[in-house]
Write a structure and sequence with these properties.
Layout: H1 4-19, H2 34-45, H3 55-62, H4 69-76, H5 85-92, H6 95-107, H7 109-119, H8 123-134, E1 143-144, H9 145-154, H10 159-174, E2 184-185, H11 198-204, H12 220-233, E3 243-247, E4 258-264, H13 265-270, E5 274-275, E6 287-291, E7 299-302, H14 304-312, H15 316-330, H16 351-363, H17 377-389, H18 400-406
Antiparallel strand pairs: 1-2, 3-5, 3-7, 4-6, 6-7
Helix pairs in contact: 2-9, 5-15, 6-8, 6-15, 7-8, 7-12, 8-12, 8-15, 9-10, 11-12, 14-15
């Protein structure tokens, strides 16, 4: 997860997970010649990238293997539906995920505290990553990694990158870290409770439950500790917050805003920036950058730990979702995710509201596919049809206005 290639890939994975859900994409799969695939596999076996993989490991895991053209559809898919930040947050930091996160935080309290003591990462932050990446282990992905990565190693773009991941996946099996029937994940090869790429596994995974394996699939302690280790390796600083929502003074010049342009906290105080409730900025961060996800909406001062979250998946919205979810998990008395409203007159929908929207569309005869709270291609097509009939702009976007229009 540290190269630009995997950052781009995994940012797309998260975007597709939010916007497309589990529904099939419309594009037909490209042709994948089986003979070409087998020839490619033979060449890979003798290449430098696979020098640590024994012939038996390679043969046992590729015998009879057929390519999966659907992963190439996902690789080439450019989502046409741009997700506003308020839609992104509405789905990733909704009441369900917050409640599940608080329950998981309590259930795994002892493990999370040991992680804090030994690795130095805040338990709520680790729990937040877990919630965004796999909904606390509920959505691990069901594609066999060997098949997906072998296909991506032989067809399509970024073959060189995927060959390294394919070799790393085979090494995981060769070492007996994960059983073959458990090594499943996303189309791009991310797997486990917090969705590591195979190469990321070898850089960060730890055996925290002491059974001799780094099992980030079935061992929650291993998965959570490995996530903490990733963040620590990415520069996470123990005892510092990721940041906080702030209020800018009238007429504040936002030129040069950005998480990378960090200034000492005293500089922000002199400029008139306060916490969102008007209190003075605390001294819990040595320096911070000004993050403005949407003009006219909430603003945040973010520190080094926000950058560590960003390194997990190169998206500021993604990092902010984890940050806000972790705050809500850590503070059960907190009533709102952000104080400042997002700059829209049509807020986004939670997953529960998305399910209600799908149910109401289906009841009116629209084909929404699976009623799962994920707005995929079929649901968006149904939304467009409904919007046209209601005299609304047919954007295909699920929002509060459409939901209210469909309610009795």
């Amino acid at each position: 997860m540290t190269t630009s290639a995997v950052r781009s890939i995994l940012a797309t994975v998260v975007l597709c997970a939010v916007s497309l859900g589990s529904q099939a994409q419309d594009a037909p799969p490209p042709a994948t010649d089986p003979a070409q695939f087998q020839s490619c596999l033979r060449n890979l076996q003798g290449s430098a990238a696979f020098k640590t993989i024994t012939p038996a490991t390679f043969a046992n895991n590729t015998a009879g293997l057929q390519p999966d053209p659907s992963v190439l559809v996902a690789l080439n898919h450019q989502p046409e539906f741009s997700i506003p930040v308020w839609d992104y947050m509405a789905m990733l930091v909704d009441k369900e995920r917050i409640a599940n996160g608080r329950a998981a935080f309590v259930k795994w309290h002892d493990v999370l505290e040991r992680i804090r003591q030994q690795i130095g990462v805040d338990p709520a932050v680790v729990t937040g990553v877990w919630g965004v990446e796999s909904n606390f282990g509920q959505n691990l992905g069901g594609r066999p990694l060997v098949r997906s990565l072998a296909t991506l190693s032989c067809f399509g773009r970024r073959q060189s990158y995927f060959r390294g991941e394919f070799a790393a996946a085979l090494r995981i099996l060769q070492e007996g870290q994960i059983p073959p029937d458990k090594l499943n994940g996303s189309w791009a090869g991310a797997f486990g409770q917090t969705q590591f790429m195979p190469s990321t596994f070898f850089r960060n995974a730890v055996d925290f439950d002491g059974d001799g394996r780094r099992d980030i699939v079935d061992s929650v302690p291993d998965a959570l500790a490995s996530t903490a280790q990733f963040l620590k390796n990415a520069g996470y600083r123990s005892g510092e917050p990721w940041g906080f929502e702030v209020k800018l003074p009238p007429g504040f010049d936002t030129t040069g805003a950005g998480r990378k342009n960090k200034r000492p906290m005293e500089s922000w105080r002199r400029a008139g920036v306060t916490l969102v409730d008007g209190r003075p900025l605390p001294d819990t961060l040595p320096s911070a950058g000004l993050l403005i996800p949407a003009a006219g909406g909430p603003t945040f001062l973010v520190g080094r730990n926000f950058d560590a979250l960003y390194s997990y998946n190169a998206s500021e919205n993604y990092a902010l979702a984890i940050a806000l979810l972790s705050d809500m998990i850590a503070h059960p008395d907190r009533a709102v995710v952000v104080v400042t409203p997002w700059p829209t007159d049509d807020p986004g929908l939670s997953r529960a509201e998305n399910r209600e929207l799908q149910q109401r569309l289906a009841a009116r005869g629209y084909d929404v596919g699976t009623v799962d709270g994920m707005i995929g291609t079929q649901t968006r097509a149904a939304i467009k049809q409904a919007q046209q009939r209601l005299g609304m702009q047919p954007t295909g976007r699920a929002g509060q206005k459409l939901l209210r229009a469909l309610q009795p």
